């Protein structure tokens, strides 16, 4: 059987068509060419072209107005005032201005390309690029042709408005960097100064730790092993929203946990910062300030849900994963004569993300 198959395969390989027999060869695929060009309304009607040009540069000038409004909103609603209404208006109107600026540029560029620029189809033959003089001349000529077809060089209204809109669109972003500069005010010496704002919170010696949001003080004996409690200063309840309640709470929020005392690995100068295995750390993530509110009871890890930074509670909230650059600040605590947990002092370092002036 194997011999017969080999013979058959050899016969197939050696077969050639006899004289007089035609072998059909398929024709190559023919180039269908370009479809007939469809003229646009603006190609046939000069009035329509004029309207299209007017629409494009109007959109570009609208973008310019949006950029100017974003800068004006930054000045009209200063976040340094500390008022919630100003902060909200600042974010809202700056965002609307920047959004309008970018949207108008995009719409203007799209309308320009669809209604004004040349839309004739053409074939560009491919060849090896060798960097010869003729190649350079052809490249220059291609730019000239593109300029002529787009009308960028001829249509000064579009060119001027586009350049003005593009330049102005950068200004709001540059203006926002002003908020990073230190700012001092006679009325509010701490306003805008991150060193002063973030180095001091409502925690002070003897300040009781209270449940968030009820404000009920916490006894050390009431904390069970493995528990995690959201904590605020007891005196925070005395503040109203007009007195900076939200701002002070945002800096002073704390997460309180209880472990076995022997599980804590503490530095010598911090051995009295905990009480019977109870430790308190700032809830403000040191990455970008999100609330660190997830506690893994078995591993004793704190997790920031925003960017997955993880902190080891047993080892001073040291960073073990994620983009956070430093441990969570620890609040020194003890108990008072009635058994309530109290702060020994304020945080010994600024809370929240890192910033330029932080040492």
TrEMBL record:
Gene Ontology cellular-component annotations: plasma membrane
UniProt key word Metal-binding: yes
Record localization: Cell membrane
Pfam families named in the record: QcrA_N, Rieske
Residue ranges of every copy of the Rieske domain listed in the record: 251-342
Gene Ontology MF terms in the entry: 2 iron, 2 sulfur cluster binding; metal ion binding; monooxygenase activity; oxidoreductase activity, acting on paired donors, with incorporation or reduction of molecular oxygen
Main localisation: membrane
Highest taxon, organism lineage: Bacteria
Topological category with respect to the lipid bilayer: Multi-pass membrane protein
The keyword Transmembrane helix is annotated on this UniProt entry: yes
Membrane-crossing residue ranges in chain numbering: 59-79, 91-112
Alphabetic keyword roster: 2Fe-2S, Cell membrane, Disulfide bond, Electron transport, Iron, Iron-sulfur, Membrane, Metal-binding, Oxidoreductase, Respiratory chain, Transmembrane, Transmembrane helix, Transport
Family designation: Belongs to the Rieske iron-sulfur protein family.
Purpose: Iron-sulfur subunit of the cytochrome bc1 complex, an essential component of the respiratory electron transport chain required for ATP synthesis. The bc1 complex catalyzes the oxidation of menaquinol and the reduction of cytochrome c in the respiratory chain. The bc1 complex operates through a Q-cycle mechanism that couples electron transfer to generation of the proton gradient that drives ATP synthesis.
Name of the protein in its database record: Cytochrome bc1 complex Rieske iron-sulfur subunit
């Amino acid at each position: 059987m194997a011999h017969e198959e080999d013979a058959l395969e050899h016969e197939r390989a050696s077969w050639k068509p006899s004289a007089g027999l035609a072998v059909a060869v398929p024709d190559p695929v023919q180039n269908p060419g370009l479809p007939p060009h469809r003229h646009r309304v603006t190609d046939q009607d000069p009035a329509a072209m004029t309207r299209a040009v007017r629409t494009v540069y109007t959109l570009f000038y609208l973008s310019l107005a949006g950029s100017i409004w974003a800068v004006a909103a930054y000045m009209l609603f200063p976040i340094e005032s500390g008022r919630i209404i100003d902060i909200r208006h600042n974010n809202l109107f700056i965002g609307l201005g920047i959004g309008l600026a970018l949207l108008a540029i995009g719409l203007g560029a799209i309308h320009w390309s669809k209604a004004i620029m040349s839309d004739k189809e053409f074939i560009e033959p491919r060849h090896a690029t060798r960097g010869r003089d003729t190649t350079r001349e052809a490249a220059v000529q291609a730019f000239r042709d593109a300029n002529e077809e787009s009308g960028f060089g001829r249509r000064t209204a579009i060119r001027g408005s586009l350049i003005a809109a593009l330049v102005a669109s950068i200004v709001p972003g540059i203006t926002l960097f002003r908020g990073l500069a230190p700012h001092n005010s006679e009325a509010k010496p701490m306003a805008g100064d991150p060193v002063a704002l973030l180095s001091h919170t409502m925690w002070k010696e003897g300040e009781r730790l209270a449940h968030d949001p009820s404000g009920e003080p916490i006894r050390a004996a009431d904390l069970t092993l493995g528990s995690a409690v959201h904590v605020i200063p007891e005196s925070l309840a005395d503040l109203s929203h007009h007195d900076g309640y939200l701002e002070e709470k945002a800096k002073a929020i704390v997460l309180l946990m209880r472990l076995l005392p022997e599980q804590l690995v503490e530095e010598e100068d911090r051995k009295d910062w905990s009480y019977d295995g109870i430790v308190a750390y700032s809830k403000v993530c040191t990455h970008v300030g999100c609330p660190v509110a997830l506690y893994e009871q078995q591993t004793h890890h704190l997790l920031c849900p925003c960017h997955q930074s993880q902190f080891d509670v047993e080892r001073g909230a040291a960073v073990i994963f994620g983009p956070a650059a430093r441990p969570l600040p620890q609040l020194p605590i003890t108990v008072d004569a009635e058994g309530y947990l109290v702060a020994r002092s304020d945080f010994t370092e600024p809370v929240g993300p890192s910033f330029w002036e932080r040492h």
